[in-house]
Specification:
By secondary structure, the protein is an alpha/beta fold. The chain contains 16 helices and ten strands. The chain folds into two domains: 35-119 and 223-338, D-Maltodextrin-Binding Protein, domain 2; 123-220, D-Maltodextrin-Binding Protein, domain 2, CATH 3.40.190.10. α2 packs across α11 and α12 crosses α13 (277-289). Its main location: periplasm.
């Protein structure tokens, strides 16, 4: 009889344990299910390394988010269309997009809420070594750059004017809409300089096709060059999600700052399968040298004014607008508290 009672108790205990396990599983998957965020990015670039770092170190998961993407749209208009149509929740692109979208249609409320990069990511390549390069050295020469009206081309025009040169008279600027054609155009006999992105600069230098002589970001100064944007409606409906997302990006910036170029390269290598880890490392190292990634995700009023002034100067928008009309700073300000943690 005692054996029977013991067996019954064992069966009862087993059933209770099973029930508890099932309840625990249900509780963990239903009450703590991650919130899905649909993310798009305007291009896939090592320039955005801290974002990929955040994805790989589990920063979003820690914040209770499940990221779908990032979907690479390969164009600003496509990235904006994703947001306006509701196909994406958040986009990574130039913060100036909020400026010209608002100017074109004030009813379309799009806001930047966190920055990822704080400067232009292009470099200047020359056919001869120029360790003491100055922008005035462009006088009388030909330089190829990105497409007319692009932010990097506007940055080049700005530093040329800042150096006292007239871009229409003192040098020849050739605008190349297709980025992959910039280096081939630079190699033509009548061209002395090129302004373009990584890893094209690194590869050209490695192949003895030129010399890296300047960082346009360093010459231009810091400004929010790439930022995260969402619609006003989405932000108002999901403030906790936006805060969690911003916290995760700050963690990605922290990790990138605290680790070596090699460690960053190894971490994000799965996102750049067509590049060797050594190439990724070299590019990350160049970006670290010029502090292209900010300490915090905060978009400051001064930084946004500098970007809007650049857009006005380039004829992209008629006026810069008010900071509060295009930036929601409260999320980045709160996340920035973790910058040194």
């Amino acid at each position: 009889m005692s054996g029977y009672r013991t067996a019954r108790h064992c069966i009862w205990f087993t059933r209770q344990a099973a029930s508890f396990a099932i309840f625990s599983l249900w509780f963990s998957t239903s009450s703590f299910a991650a919130t899905t965020v649909r993310l798009n990015e305007v291009i896939r670039s090592i320039f955005y390394a801290p974002q990929y770092v955040a994805l790989h170190i589990g920063a979003f998961e820690t914040e209770g988010l499940n990221i779908t993407g990032p979907k690479t749209t390969w164009g600003t208009q496509a990235a904006l269309t994703e947001i306006v149509s509701g196909n994406s929740d958040i986009a990574l692109l130039g913060p100036e997009s909020a400026l010209f979208t608002r100017e074109a249609g004030p009813a379309r409320r799009l806001y930047d809420f966190a920055q990822l990069t704080n400067g232009d990511g292009t470099f200047i390549l020359a056919k001869t070594p120029m360790p003491d390069f100055k922008v005035s050295d462009l006088k009388g020469k030909t330089i190829v750059t990105t497409g007319k009206g692009s932010t990097s081309a506007l940055a080049l025009l700005h530093i040329i004017r800042q150096a006292g040169l007239d871009p229409d008279k003192d040098l020849t600027i050739r605008f190349i809409p297709t980025t992959s054609n910039i280096i081939p155009s630079y190699l033509e006999a009548n061209t002395t300089f090129a302004q373009t992105f990584e890893p094209a600069i690194y590869k050209a230098v490695a192949e003895n096709k030129g010399y890296r002589v300047a960082s346009v970001g360093s010459l231009l100064g810091q400004l929010p060059y790439t930022a995260y944007m969402a619609s006003g409606e989405f932000i108002e409906k999901h403030p906790d999600l936006i805060q969690s997302f911003t916290n995760a990006i700050q963690k990605g910036l922290n990790w990138t700052r605290e680790h070596s170029a090699h460690e960053v390269a190894e971490m994000i290598a799965p996102d750049f399968k067509d590049m060797s880890v050594s190439t990724i490392e070299a590019v990350v190292d160049e970006y670290k040298k010029v502090d292209i990634w900010p300490r915090t995700v905060v978009i400051t009023p001064d930084g946004m004014k500098k970007m809007s002034d650049l857009m006005v100067e380039g004829g992209v928008v008629n006026s810069g607008g008010e900071y509060a009309d295009v930036v929601k700073p409260e999320f980045s300000q709160k996340a920035a508290a973790t910058a040194d943690k």
